[in-house]
Amino acid sequence: MVRSEVLEGIPLLPPVRFSSNSMSRDFRCGVVVHERSQCGFTIRPGGVSEAIIFQTAPTKECRTSFVSQSETSPLLGDHRQSSRSPSSRLEAVAPPLKAVLTAPVIKAVLNYSLLALCQISLLALLPIYLASTPLPLTPRAIGVFMGGMGIFNGTFQILCTSALVKRWGAKRMYQVSICAYFPLWALFPIAFSTASADYHPWSLHLLACIGVMLVTASDMSFSKHSHLLLPYPIVHSAFIAIIFLFVRSATPTPAALGTTNGLAQTMSSFTRTIGPACVTSLYAISREYKLLGGQLVYIVLTLVTAVMFSASFLLPLTPYAHDS
Fold first, then answer.
1. Rounded (5°) CA angle 36-269-183
2. Domain presence at residue 321
3. Could you tell me if 108 and 221 lie in one domain?
4. Domain match, 30 and 45 both
5. Contact call for residues 321 and 249 (beta carbons, < 8 A)
6. Domain holding 124: CATH number?
7. How far apart are CA 125 and CA 283, in angstroms?
8. Which residues fall within 8 angstroms of residue 80, CB to CB, at 6 or more apart?
9. Is 229 part of any domain?
10. What is the pTM of this model?
């Protein structure tokens, strides 16, 4: 490991730089993939399937129409129909934002925003909490603990979440993952008081294992293992977030799916932006001024989780997908 004054002064620089590079790489890959998926298909009356464009200006790749035969259409089709200009063809126009703001969309976006707020609050609070405990935890020990927690979490989501969702349903598992936040917020002060007193090592190890299991349960709301989504020979499966199933189900029409997803991502990004600053500041203020015994931040997070759990009852029992 190369030693430098920058790394000694900022020990968290390498993981932060690694995360930013990963996001930048994913963004570039998304741009490349997006350029190849600009066309959609719709079924016109009479059995004609034609390529449609989900953007304002048509591209050369999306101007080719595909004719499918039906019982009522002739084998060779209509010459007058195929000789029309591309501008007169049927195009899918995304509805305005006002038309997308229906009650199901608002409910799904509300749940997604609250879920993103709780998740980012946990991720921002956990390393600060571990560094401020009476235990002599080094940044290396904190990184090893969080890395092991991530490995266990990812393995569980791959092996178990799909079966649980198929067995109990998406909404029930979503509510179970929300309920995992209640004991998780209570575990923070319990572990701190245990570490401050005359403790036994096995008690802290037990609390750490319980915390890892609760974090894994809470992350089930963001993962559902689904097969046959990526047509690559090496990668045979991908992850679809459970909350995204409800966002997709709330979409009024297939043409509004992009607008709905964009609205949901915008609101969740807003909560993820203000979440770390608010929760870390509230944690510092609670500890410094001993607000409610220094536990004010956990009480506020518990109230937010209660609101999120109440909002989960607004979601449909079984999300469905639009056939485009």
1. 125
2. no
3. yes
4. no
5. yes
6. 1.20.1250.20
7. 8
8. none
9. yes
10. 0.70
Asked, for residue 318, whether it belongs to a domain, the answer is no
**168/240 same-domain check:** yes
Domain assignment present for 244: yes
Rounded to whole angstroms, the Cα distance separating 57 from 86 reads 11
Bridge partners of 237, per DSSP, are 227
How many distinct structural domains can be found in the chain?
3
- Using CA atoms, how far residue 104 sits from 64, 91, 193, 241, 248, in Å, is 35, 26, 43, 18, 10
End-to-end CA distance of the chain: 53
Give the CA-trace dihedral at 206, 212, 213, 216, to 10 degrees. Answer: 180
The reply to whether 161 and 222 lie within a common domain is yes
Q: Please report which residue ranges of 10-138 form alpha helices under DSSP H.
A: 13-35, 79-82, 97-100, 103-132
Over the stretch 133-182, which tens digit does the pLDDT of each residue have? Answer: 888 888 888 989 999 999 999 898 888 888 888 888 889 989 999 999 99
